[in-house]
Design a protein that fits this description.
Layout: H1 7-21, H2 39-42, H3 47-56, H4 58-61, H5 76-90, H6 101-116, H7 123-126, H8 136-148
This protein binds heme C.
């Protein structure tokens, strides 16, 4: 028993496994952003709105993800990639103008709600990305912007 389950042996296997994990890299490539489709570009969003959203939302809700160094380290990279894919699937601002009017309205309302209730940006993200934390002023700027785009507060859950 001692011979096969020694601490050293386990450590060596663990390092081997982590080493092998590094070969499974995430795909960071993305297509070119289309000015006429992107939410901020196509609506000619003011610069302050664009800046806040690029810092606080676009890493997960667009193809324009700015990857940190640890996105090269598995298994952190897999976990990050999963969040990014989930975020893009839910809402990709790069494709805004390709949404139906109904979907746009729903997403605008959801954005307003997420910002008002401080659910977005994701806390697990702002914990590391301090620059993405929204202060009261920034939050208000986004709230005003989404309202000016037609976002409405939903009552009774829908
Ligand atoms: C770290 C990644 C990340 C960041 C940054 C982020 N989101 Fe999200 N967002 C997600 C993920 C993942 C989901 C889907 C799962 C969920 O709802 O938690 C989501 C869901 C959403 C939804 C849909 C919610 C619903 O009702 O289903 C909206 C709207 C949204 N985000 C808006 C924003 C806005 C606006 C920002 C910036 C202020 C932002 N998000 C920043 C990852 C992120």
């Amino acid at each position: 028993m001692g011979k096969y389950f020694s601490f050293r042996r386990i450590l060596i296997y663990l390092m081997l496994i982590i080493g092998i994990m590094q070969f499974f890299r995430i795909d960071k490539s993305h297509e070119k952003v289309q000015t006429d489709l992107d939410f901020l570009l196509s609506t000619d969003a003011p610069e302050n709105v664009s800046k806040i959203m690029h810092e606080a939302c676009y890493d997960c809700h667009s193809n324009e993800t700015k990857y940190p160094w640890y996105s090269d380290v598995a298994p952190i990279s897999w976990w990050l990639n999963n969040h990014i894919h989930e975020g893009r699937e839910e809402l990709n601002f790069n494709y805004w103008q390709s949404f139906t009017p109904k979907r746009k309205q729903r997403k605008l309302n959801e954005c307003l709600e997420m910002i008002q209730e401080r659910e977005m940006p994701l806390p697990s993200y702002t914990w590391i990305h301090k620059e993405a934390r929204l202060n009261t002023d920034q939050r208000q700027i986004l709230i005003n912007w989404f309202k000016s785009m037609g976002a409405r507060e939903e009552k009774d859950g829908d």
